[in-house]
């Protein structure tokens, strides 16, 4: 995907009224792009990176020929959607109850 396409997708996601945050994180947990304040950005990138590592391990232990392709976490306040790729994680935080 080109840099222009990534930027277009990022803008489309951040313009969605339900989306509160979008992060693109590299394989080392470093943020490449985000619309969150630095404190929240650090918290989400650190914790979600660990969660994806654990989930990937679980999937591999159940079936070593399988891979994690999408992870969705629903809490009382948010829905966090995570798309892992070989080099990056796309993290979208939304408030499904927002009106």
Automatic annotation (TrEMBL):
Name the GO cellular-component terms.
cytoplasm; cytoplasmic dynein complex; microtubule
Q: Which Gene3D superfamilies match?
A: Dynein light chain 2a, cytoplasmic (3.30.450.30)
One Pfam family it belongs to: Robl_LC7
| One GO MF term | dynein intermediate chain binding
Would you say which domain of life the source belongs to?
A: Eukaryota
SUPFAM superfamilies in alphabetical order? Roadblock/LC7 domain (SSF103196)
Cellular localisation = Cytoplasm, Cytoskeleton
Q: Name one GO biological process term.
A: microtubule-based movement
- Major localization listed first in the record, in broad terms: cytoplasm
Q: State the UniProt keywords alphabetically.
A: Cytoplasm, Cytoskeleton, Dynein, Microtubule, Motor protein, Transport
Roadblock/LAMTOR2 domain boundaries: 6-94
Keyword Manganese carried by entry: no
Q: Which InterPro entries match?
A: DYNLRB1/2, Roadblock/LAMTOR2_dom
Entry annotated with the keyword Transport: yes
What family name appears in the similarity comment? Belongs to the GAMAD family.
Briefly, what is this protein's role? Answer: Acts as one of several non-catalytic accessory components of the cytoplasmic dynein 1 complex that are thought to be involved in linking dynein to cargos and to adapter proteins that regulate dynein function. Cytoplasmic dynein 1 acts as a motor for the intracellular retrograde motility of vesicles and organelles along microtubules.
Know the name of this protein?
Dynein light chain roadblock
Recorded source organism is Glomus cerebriforme
Q: What is the lineage of its organism?
A: Eukaryota, Fungi, Fungi incertae sedis, Mucoromycota, Glomeromycotina
């Amino acid at each position: 995907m080109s840099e222009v396409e990534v930027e277009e997708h990022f803008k489309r996601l951040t313009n969605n009224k339900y989306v509160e945050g979008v992060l693109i994180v590299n394989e080392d947990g470093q943020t490449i792009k985000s619309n969150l304040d630095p404190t929240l950005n650090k918290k989400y990138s650190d914790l979600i990176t660990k969660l994806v590592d654990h989930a990937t391990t679980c999937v591999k232990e159940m079936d070593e020929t399988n891979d994690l392709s999408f992870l969705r976490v629903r809490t009382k306040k948010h829905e966090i959607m995570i798309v892992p790729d070989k080099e990056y994680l796309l993290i979208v935080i939304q408030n499904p109850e927002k009106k």
